Amino acid sequence: MRRLALVAHVGASVGWLGAVVVSLALGVVGLAADDPQVVRAVYLILEPVGWTTLVPFSVASLVTGLLQALGTHWGLTRHYWVLIKLVMNLVATGVLLLYMQTLGYLADLARGGADARNASPVVHAAAAIVLLLVALVLSVYKPRGTTAWTPARPAGVQGFRPTPP
User: Fold this and answer.
1) In a domain? residue 131
2) Rounded-to-integer distance, Cα 27 and Cα 31, Å
3) pLDDT 10s digits, 11-59
4) Going by C-beta distance under 8 Å and a sequence separation of 6 or more, which residues neighbour residue 41?
5) Rounded to two decimals, what is the model's pTM?
6) Does any domain span residue 55?
7) Residue 150 domain flag
């Protein structure tokens, strides 16, 4: 079960990163295109891409990450890197849910025939990529350091450190 949960978490996180990369590519096309129909098409597609891929993958990454933390020796609040990833995921998901209103507004502009060209999707997607890559690095390197909520070491045991799964 633990490995299945890990596969689900990695899959959701990789899916989220992939969806953000697609959003970045669409945003760049929307800014760079000379054809007004291409620009309209980009801003019309960004909103459904957000609701059908970005939001589900971000929520799935959050939920599976919580399961991973609670179901393994890493714990939710024992190690700084896990806690930092949790906070990053919560903030990123919250910002994304709020940002979906902006994507809806840009799609409405495009539907109405107005020039919806805007750098915001590029900026948000680039920031999300940086955030997700930082989370990836934390997951791979697992920097040392435990929080104040870490259980005390067993009496008489020096250098006690739980072994990874």
Assistant:
1) yes
2) 6
3) 999 999 999 999 999 999 999 999 999 999 999 999 999 999 999 999 9
4) 110
5) 0.88
6) yes
7) no
